[in-house]
Amino acid sequence: MINRILRITLILTGFVLLLPATGSAETPLPVIHEPEGEGVKCVEPEDVMRRDHMNFILHQRDETMHEGIRTSKYSFAECINCHVQPDDKGNIADVDSEDHFCNGCHEYAAVTIDCFECHADRPQKFIKREGKSASLQHELQQMPTSSEDMGGASK
Questions:
Q1: Which of 53, 44, 71 is nearest to 113 (CA)?
Q2: pLDDT digit of tens for each residue in the chain (155 aa)?
Q3: Is residue 35 packed enough to be buried (19+ CB in 10 Å), middle (13-18) or exposed (0-12)?
Q4: Which pairs from 24-31 meet CB under 8 Å and 24+ separation?
Q5: 76, 115 in Cβ contact below 8 A?
Q6: All residues at 6 or more sequence positions from 139 whose CB lies less than 8 Å from its CB, including other chains
Q7: d(CA 73, CA 79)
């Protein structure tokens, strides 16, 4: 009989411990920067984008890279152009900042993203090129060779 009472007490104690404590601090959800401009809205409802954005982006990538089909509806660049905007001081968060549109949610969900290894983390209109070519080929040609790195010494 005492074992039964003890077992019930332990079970009830376990359920009480599983209940959320009132007044406990919860992890705040990341801030989503809504698209700006009158009448501007996202290409899909928020709940759909939260759940399926990665599928839209991957499908868009496959169509663009493998089939040559370029549309803007699910374009990664268009997402960045709409959702990444300067703050009140004119600063734009880079992808390593938790204030960046993508990084805030991905940090929250503990998901690693590699999109920005190739793609810009800010809208094209905010990238200062200072007259330089944006082509990868041009950038590679401007990189120093290994012999230049060693002070011009030859092999």
A1: 53
A2: 777 787 787 777 766 566 655 555 677 777 776 776 666 788 899 889 889 999 998 899 899 888 888 888 888 888 888 888 888 888 888 888 878 888 888 888 888 888 888 888 888 888 776 655 555 555 556 666 655 555 554 44
A3: middle
A4: 27/108, 29/108, 30/98, 30/104, 30/105, 30/107, 30/108, 31/99, 31/104
A5: yes
A6: 133
A7: 9
Which two three-digit tokens encode residue 116? Answer: 């920005």
The encoded tokens of residue 78 equal 């268009």
Interior CA angle at 40 toward 37 and 46, to 5°?
A: 125
* Residue 62 in tokens: 């496959």
Predicted TM-score of the model (pTM):
0.58
